[in-house]
Write a structure and sequence with these properties.
homodimer; alpha/beta; about 45% helix; 18 helices; about 10% strand; Rossmann fold; six-stranded parallel sheet
């Protein structure tokens, strides 16, 4: 379970997601709908790594609509460049780079985790978990310094004020933008799946643990008693981590800059619109809120023709077709004994294989397997010869697979990937293999099952049809609601302010205690009345009669 | 509070809502979006009265899209005609007409309620409440007989099966269609605001009583302790009414036809899509579910030019403008002493007044007031000379007012009208006058306040702008999701099945009892260990040392 603690910061970058505007054939709605909006000014607080890939796509689209976008980045940023044709930037220099901005952060993490899982020692696990909590705390401590640097810099803040932004677009995985937006009194929109230390819904919508799997707990929405019990424990644990490990770093700032009456968690909950990178063909149905708009798969688009060489390779597979494999940017972190097992399994397949692989070339690679450093993943997934996709289970790749209807063999490595592939497995559209226990036999069996049993493809095609059947393309939905907030200076009518209530009021604990006290008092009064008034009278009458 | 018990059956008919297809200028999306759907077959279970006005509009639109609509009606139906160009019908003869199909049902009800309110006697209230519960029970008993008549009629059911319907569209105020759909194994879509005995959300979404006003309790989403306490009591009361008064009639049928394992309430909760006649410019923000689509105000459309006479009357008002009044079809039920007070107040206004009035003409009517038996309400509300609207607070009229940005003076009479006008009052877009305490003075004061204080109009204009700013017209949303269910034979991926869990599992009561027991056991073990192992050892050591 432990790999999901830091899931707000997974570093998986899909090479196949250029920041271009999308137009899907299946969505026939024109891009500009609803009342038109004047070109506005948008300040963006992104998170580095794979999160940036998504945010950049949205920024590109906002720019194409005529809006002026300004991105706040740190000087040590990994992916977020200082200048691009579609945005300007504000670069802040921090005393120390944020850990997740270092490219080897996640690789080290993965190697350590696989070691621990193989050893299976409880002490090792506890030690690792403790280290992870510390790493999480450090990341947020470092990120909060971005807030300090900005809020302390009066010149910078004045220049931002002078710029008269209309809205702040935030990836709340690192929620510094929330503080800046509050200082500037600007409405906010989140581009979110992970927030602080858990899944976004848990901060804004009711989440009954009886059927909503909590972050870091890979179960479906149909749990037995033990699973529900563990789910409740994970909920408590996640809440504790949020309140004790993550939030204190930001609460210190909030206390300093906005006084003792403002709570960071309330600021976090007060976003006008939550653009949730979720679709219910993937996520289990669960309570939601009126100010959540679902944009899961907003990066998906039809495939384009392959290069000549790649097309030739694909066609050479004949009737057997092609298997695709990519474990994201972290694949070089997989130990060679695992890649060797995978290569051996591939060699036994009649299919051709295209394997995106950055590390050392496995010595036992079959003739049917083509190693590539980068591949046009979306174009390949949309190719009719592709029969299945071996993936780590990052959501970008999962949504592309759903979009094109390609079944998955999941080898989850880190963070939310375990829960992600489980969601597809529960729909009969994927098989999952444990990386720590992977052998050529069990991997081959899983691959052959997905390739030869038509139900996986059928189920994925069904998900694809459901996913594509929307009133509006998810990217247009995202742009629509950002412009909505700009037009109306917020979306207060869609946002409950119940989060401002004390917890005992929110959960009606005070009401039920009062009700219970009242009922007890009533019972006591009735008993007292019978005992001290009725019974003596009866006795008196009886004795008189006697 | 009591007037809302029967609110599923309010009989307010807006004369201005012909069943024509709508095309709003502000919504520039073409009507047909998303994947095209083949013409399908739709079976409809409507509810008579004002509910039919809405359903009929939707049916008209579905017919215009090429779908074949069949409406199930009773032989004694009040508004639902046997034949119309846009639908066919199945007419079922019941042993007795359903009470709400009698035109005087609501009039009698209103007169009785006003009497009780004026008297203010507790005994009278309790007696009235009891009568209402009986009436509610009778209505559902009568309605359930429609189920019996259909399910027992093998020839009818076979002919329906032969018809191969794609979807059943139901107004679940009287939920007989739910049983028939279950028997036919067909997917269902609800056109709903009120269901059995309360607001629709309460059956399908989490509804924390700390900030979600329960049905029949006119409060806002910001409650003090006493309000929250009463809100919880109303929630318990409504649940009891649902489970003890309403559902048993249908549960008997479910038990007879589908066996002991099927629960009526579960069938009720299992609709694929809930088309909720709600918009959050009107409703307070609250938890929702992925299979709820909001279509509040789907009947709204731009106004058309008035007749010459009406236009002349309106123009004759000069700079003062015109006040509109309509209390729906029940206005003839208002006692003459109230209409007389209203007429006296109107006579003192510099504005002209158009009053839709069906009963006896008040003797003290001013020269400025035009009585009409029917008026083109939507066209008038969209006229720039109309300054305010005196309304009873039915949702049809309220949404038309919001759409056109006309502030309201509310005189709520029955059912949900008290809650409806309160929602607008909380937004500063309406003033509310109690019909039972109405005098010419307090009524005039309220009218003048709304006419002369620009904030009411400004707030209503703001609501109007928010209401009109949608990615898609609500009527298109309704059609889209009905067609979605037809395309995919349901929408199971959007619907949680958590309602099938026992309540103690759903609310995690078993988990918390187990957790508590575990913690108690742990504490007892620790205490026992210290008491019987550690302390004796310490004592022994101490005595040895001594």
């Amino acid at each position: 379970m432990f790999p999901t603690l830091c899931q707000g910061y997974k570093g998986i970058l899909m090479g196949s997601l250029p920041g271009a505007s999308l137009l899907l054939l299946v969505f026939t709605v024109p891009l500009l709908i609803g009342p038109s909006v004047q070109a506005g000014k948008i300040m963006v607080f992104p998170v580095d790594g794979s999160h940036w890939v998504n945010m950049n796509l949205l920024i590109q689209n906002l720019h194409d609509k005529g809006h002026e976008v300004t991105v706040v980045r740190t000087a040590t940023s990994w992916y977020i460049k200082e200048s691009a044709p579609h945005y300007r930037s504000i670069t802040v220099t921090l005393p120390q780079a944020i850990a997740i901005e270092k490219e080897d952060f996640f690789v080290k993490f993965l190697i350590k985790m696989l070691e621990i899982k193989r050893e299976g020692s409880l002490t090792g696990f506890v030690k690792f978990y403790w280290e992870m909590l510390n790493a999480l705390s450090d990341i947020h401590k470092q990120a909060s310094l971005l807030g300090v640097e900005m809020l302390e810099n009066k010149t910078l803040m004045q220049s931002i004020r002078d710029n008269q932004f209309d809205v702040v677009l935030i990836d709340p995985g690192l929620p510094v933008g929330v503080l800046v937006a509050h200082e500037l009194k600007l409405p906010t929109v989140y581009n979110v799946r992970w927030i602080t230390s858990g899944e976004g819904h848990f901060v804004v919508a009711p989440s009954p643990t009886s059927y909503v799997p909590t972050s870091a707990h890979p179960v479906t929405d149909k749990m037995n008693f033990i699973q529900r019990f563990k789910n409740a424990l994970f909920y408590i644990l996640n809440t504790c981590i949020d309140k004790l490990v993550v939030c204190p770093h930001y609460d210190r700032l909030v206390h300093k800059y906005f006084g003792p009456d403002v709570k960071f968690y309330h600021l976090l909950q007060s976003a006008d619109i939550w653009l949730m990178r979720v679709d219910f063909v993937f996520e289990f149905p669960r309570p939601t809120m009126p100010n959540i708009a679902y944009i899961g798969g907003f990066q998906c688009k039809p495939s384009e023709p392959l290069s000549n060489e790649l097309e030739q390779f694909v066609q050479s597979s004949g009737e057997h077709g092609v298997l695709l494999m990519s474990l994201g940017t972290l694949v070089q972190g997989l130990p060679s004994e695992i890649t060797s097992e995978i290569a051996a399994a591939f060699a036994q397949l009649p299919q051709k294989v295209i394997w995106r692989h950055v590390g050392e070339r496995p010595s036992n690679l079959g003739n049917n397997t083509l190693l590539v450093k980068w591949m046009p993943q979306n174009d390949l997934l949309g190719h009719p010869k592709i029969k299945a996709f071996v993936a780590h289970g990052g959501t970008n790749g999962i949504y592309e697979s759903i979009y094109h209807g390609v079944p998955i063999i999941g080898i989850p490595l880190l963070f939310d990937q375990f829960e992600n592939v489980l969601r597809l497995e529960a729909r009969g559209a994927a098989r999952v293999v444990d990386a720590a226990k992977l052998t050529r036999q069990n991997f081959l069996e899983a691959v052959q099952d997905v390739l030869n049993n038509p139900s996986y493809r059928k189920n994925m095609k069904r998900l694809s049809a459901l996913h594509r059947d929307k009133p509006m393309h998810p990217l247009d939905t995202a742009v629509y609601w950002i412009e909505f907030v700009m037009r109306h200076k917020g979306a207060a009518h869609l946002r409950t302010e119940s989060y401002r209530m004390p917890w005992y009021s929110y959960y009606s604990v005070d009401v039920f205690v009062f009700l219970l006290a009242f009922l007890l008092k009533l019972t006591a009064s009735v008993v007292g009345f019978v005992q001290f008034i009725c019974l003596p009278i009866c006795r008196k009458r009886k004795s008189k009669q006697e």
